[in-house]
Amino acid sequence: MELALYHPIFGYYHRSSTPIGRDGDYVTAPVMTTLFGELLCLQFIEVWEMMGEPKRFTLIEAGPGTGHLAADILKTAQKFPRFDQALEYRLVETSPVLRTMQKERLAPDTGRCAWYNTLAQAGGAGIEGVIFGNEFLDALPVCWLEMTPAGLREVGVQVTAAGDLETKTLPLNHRLDPLYFERMGLNLPVGMRTEVGLQARDWMQCAGEILRRGLVLMIDYGYTAQEYYTAARHRGTLVGHRQHCLIDDPLSYPGEMDLTAHVDFTAMAQGGVAGGLEPCGYTTQGWFFMGLGLLERLEALARARGSVGLGTQIRQTALRLILPEEMGERFKVLSMTAGLPGCPLSGYRLRNQWEALATTPKRHG
To answer: What is the CATH number of the domain that holds 208?
Structure first.
C-alpha cells in the first residue's frame, strides 16, 4: 500500500495528474464548499481564545490536498485581525504534484505558509496551536490481516509467474500483537479479513508529542473498534477509488488509484493518549458542523443575498456536510487536547460521544 501510494516515481500521489476533484478520482468536502473551512477556522479561533490569545498560534494541516481548506481558513482568519496576526500555517505534504497546486492556490499567503514532508519536521521542538487533517488518516498504509484456524496472520502481496499480483498469508510482523483483538474484547471469526492502522496510530502519538498546548482535530470516515471489527465487515474496508468509482480489489491498478481504509477511532484515541493527549470530543461530522452553526450560517447567507433562500446548489452542497445519508453520519470528528483540560469546544455542544470509544485506556501517572 505504501509503494502503491507513495513511491517517489510510480506512487499514486506522485503522478503528474491530480487525484482530487471532478477530473480526478475523488472529491473532498473543502473542494465542495467554503463553509467547511470557514467553520473550522471559527473552531480554531475558539481554541486560541481559550489559550489566552497567544501572540503566536500555529496551525499544522496534514494532507492539505488541493489547498482549498487552507485557503478558506486563511481567508476567514483575515476577518479577525488579532487572530490573523498570530497565525502561522504549516502544511505537511509529500506529493510534489499536490504541493505545487497548494502553492499556486495559496500564492497570496505563501509568506506565512511553510511546507514540510513529515509531521515531526513541521512540529520541530513543539508548537502551541492546532494539528488537524481532513481525510488524511484513511490514506496512511495499513496492515492487512486475516483470522485463520491457526490464529491471526498478515496478508501480503506477491507477484505471480504471469506478472500479476495476488495475496499471500504471512506470519505477523513484529509490531503486530497476535492477541490484538482479544485484548480489546473482540473475537474475529475464522476467515475474516480486516486491517489495522499502525501508522495512523503512530501519527496520533507523534501529534501528541509535538503539541505543547492546543488541539488535535481529525476528520475522516471510520468507526469505533466495536463497530469496525464485526462479522458484518468480514472483508474489512480496504478499497480503491478510481475515476469516482469504488474498486473492491485493492490490488487492481497499482499506482493508478487511491487506496484507503476506514479509520479505527478507538485506536486513534489510544495513540493520542500514548502521546500525552487528553480526551476532548468525538461525534459525527453532521453534529459537529451543526454545533459550529452551519445552519445559522446558511440563514445568514440567505439574508445577506436579500432573497428568501440561497441558491439551490449552494444549499444542497452545504447540507451534504451534515445530512445522515450524505457525509453527516459517515464522517467522524475526533478531538484531543494538550494543556486544555475540560476544553468545551462548540463543535461538540450538541452531541459528544467520547464514551463510544469504550476501549480507550485511561492515562496513569
So the answer is: 3.40.50.12710
